[in-house]
Write a structure and sequence with these properties.
By secondary structure, this protein is mainly β. The chain has 2 domains: 291 residues, no CATH class; 156 residues, Sandwich (Jelly Rolls), CATH 2.60.120. Strands 1, 2, 5, 6, 7, 8, 9, 10, 11, 12, 13 and 14 form a 12-stranded antiparallel beta sheet that branches. Strands 3, 4, 15, 16, 18, 22 and 24 form a 7-stranded mixed beta sheet that branches. A hairpin with a 3-residue loop joins β5 and β6. The chain is elongated and about 110 Å long.
Length: 524
């Protein structure tokens, strides 16, 4: 006897996806949770995304599929153990230096129901900003030049595309699923459905937003915000959208082996016959909106979703895997189940998620201040020194450096890295690198302004001296200087001449000099 199912249904259409009314966001089935989201029974993802599985009979005698499962949210116990005082936890408390709004929202939208045997590395939200004489470089997950670490230029536009789509409606459906060959122990199953999509509301926007850099970058008007966009929408009560799409699926069962493939929303295109178009423009700190056209016909295409699955059962052991794309990225589940006796089951699983995700943990804002870019080619990258016989002397060069300003943020540390070389011309002695920083040039002569020094190296005559590496952490006493929008740096060549007759003279040449300022951001 062949099994067949003829069905009628109603699906909800929301945000461009056709989905059944049952929620797909949160899995509370204890068995599926234990299998890392893998569906081995006749429910869940298999029936949802493969129409043929609506006719495949449930396996009997060993699959251990209970009618009722009671999930225990061990993850919440683990979460409360890790955050015993969530009300005072800095990561969840606005106004705290450690407040992380993305982590708070992510915890709410992705409830910690599942126990983590091995915690994934906590992602950080470090933002790295590079500052030079007349350039700005940010390293973050932003688009465009931000992601590719391309320096900003004068009078140059920097934009990103802005696209958004929201649509809602419903879809009456008719479908069929049945066995086309074999029997319940070994057979082929075929299923399909046709949907008629009825859209009740639609909104779409496409545009470009960004800014145009100034000249110079750190002038009185460093950037000018700009933005253009075109919006299309059909309000509730307008002529509804309409379209047709279909699902198809196949399944094969042969003894202990089971496999299937389902594809959904094939050719699903919705035509909206009555939409309005408006344009928007933001420039010179003001925005305008302008009517473009009315009663415009437009179309939208629903994403195709699919699932491919494979399972093998041998006695009390079942192994399975599936690949699912519900229109929001691909997810791979691999799981295994070892069954004991009646009402006893042990689940071992691995879930490999090949989907993009946005994570954010506690982090820092990091400024890379390229001091060398301020002094290169100006003559201030070279410090001439002249030390009379039997004395010590220091020669210096000054430079004012523009920063972005850390505001109320706390400067955690400042690390220096650079290279210099000594070009001695006459005499013998030692020359060492020193760096002083202060809010003003005069302050760099105060004892507390000494930020870093390198052990002096011997020089003699015109003998070549290998380049020296400048590396270390600045004195903690100068950290607060880097919280302001400007500071003064004094690079000094500290010389000592032990000769009683011959003077010591030459040049200390800076080849590179970078300061990395690590701050703990405070947003409130």
């Amino acid at each position: 006897m062949r099994t067949s199912v003829l069905g009628f249904g109603l699906a909800l259409l929301l945000m461009g996806y056709a989905a059944p009314a049952s929620a797909q966001w949160l899995v509370t089935d204890a068995r599926r949770i234990g299998l890392g989201g893998l569906s081995l029974g006749r429910s869940g993802n298999l029936e949802r995304y493969n129409a043929a599985y609506r006719a495949v009979p449930a396996r009997t005698g060993g699959w251990g599929e209970p009618k009722v499962t009671i999930p225990i949210p061990l993850g919440i116990i683990q979460f409360l153990h890790d955050h015993p005082n969530i009300g005072s936890d800095p990561a969840f408390k606005p106004g705290s230096v450690g407040f992380n709004p993305v982590l708070a929202v992510n915890t709410l939208l992705n409830l910690p129901l599942y126990y983590e045997v091995k915690k994934a590395p906590t992602p950080n939200n470090n933002v790295v900003v590079g500052i030079g004489q007349d350039s700005l470089l940010l390293r973050d997950t932003l688009l465009g030049f931000l992601a590719d670490s391309i320096p900003a230029r004068h009078n140059a536009p920097y934009t990103v595309s802005v696209n958004g789509l929201l649509q809602g409606g419903f879809a009456p459906s008719i479908g069929y699923a049945g066995r086309i060959a074999g029997d319940s122990a070994e057979g082929f199953y075929l299923g399909g459905a046709v949907h008629y999509y009825i859209g009740v509301a639609y909104f779409r926007t496409d545009g470009v937003a960004g800014f145009t850099s100034g000249n110079p970058l750190f002038g009185t008007n460093p950037v000018t915000p700009t933005g253009t966009g075109l919006s299309q929408y059909s309000k509730w009560g307008n002529t509804p959208g309409h379209g047709v799409g279909g699902d198809v699926g196949i399944a094969w069962v042969s003894g202990p082996i089971e496999a299937g493939l389902g594809i959904n929303d094939i050719g699903a295109t919705i035509t909206w016959p009555d939409t309005r178009q408006d344009s928007s423009l933001y420039r010179n700190n003001s925005g305008t909106s302008k009517f473009v056209a009315n009663h415009v016909e437009t179309t939208t295409k629903l994403p195709v979703s699919y699932i491919a699955n494979l399972a093998f059962t041998e006695g009390a052991v079942t192994l399975g895997a599936d690949i699912l794309n519900a229109g929001r990225g691909t997810v791979i589940h691999v799981g295994g189940e070892q069954r004991g006796g009646r009402m006893r089951a042990k689940w071992l699983c691995v879930a490999a998620l090949a989907a993009g995700a946005v994570g954010c943990g506690g982090g820092h804002v990091i400024f890379n201040v390229d001091v060398y870019s301020f002094i290169a080619g100006t003559g201030r990258d070279t410090v001439p020194y002249a030390v009379p016989p039997n004395t010590n002397a220091t020669a210096s060069t000054f430079q004012k450096i523009s920063l972005l300003g850390a505001g109320s943020s706390l400067v955690d540390s400042v690390v220096i890295f650079g290279t210099d070389t000594m070009r001695n011309q006459i005499g013998s002695g030692t020359i060492g690198f020193q760096l002083f920083v202060a809010p003003d040039s005069a302050g760099t002569y105060l004892p507390g302004a000494l930020a870093f020094s390198v052990t002096p190296r011997p020089v003699s005559g015109t003998n070549p001296v290998p380049p020296d590496t400048i590396r270390g952490k600045l004195a903690a006493g100068v950290n607060s200087v880097f919280a302001s929008s400007t500071l003064w740096a004094r690079v000094a060549a500290q010389g000592s001449n032990t000769s009683l007759i011959t003077p010591l003279a030459g040049k200390m040449v800076i080849k590179s000099l970078l300061l990395t300022v690590v701050t703990n951001p405070k947003f409130f």
